[in-house]
Amino acid sequence: QVQLVESGGGLVQAGGSLRLSCVASRITFSTSAMAWYRQAPGKQRELVARISSGGSTNYADSVKGRFTISRDNAKNTVYLQMNSLKSEDTAVYYCNANTATRHELGYVYWGQGTQVTVSS
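Above: the chain's sequence. Below: its structure in token form.
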């Protein structure tokens, strides 16, 4: 029933920009923490950026200053604005939701992923 649907991936030249979107359905979105992860072939999946229900953000050191995560609760959507893209940003990017709150255990959900390829 829960769905996270990513979009916005594609092929871009180094130095370019992309904006990824993730639309969540059947989740109380406003109280869920949202995050973007990525995984390149032969590498471990890594956290790229996270945004709490209150709007606090965290970024991987490798993307800090270049990527921005944001959310629009009215649209049940989380975004990842990616600027100054580098070849090492090439990966499948996954949307993640965590519905845990102070008062209840939650669940973790994943999107299907969207490919980002940066050419040099």
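The first strand starts at residue 3 and ends at 7.
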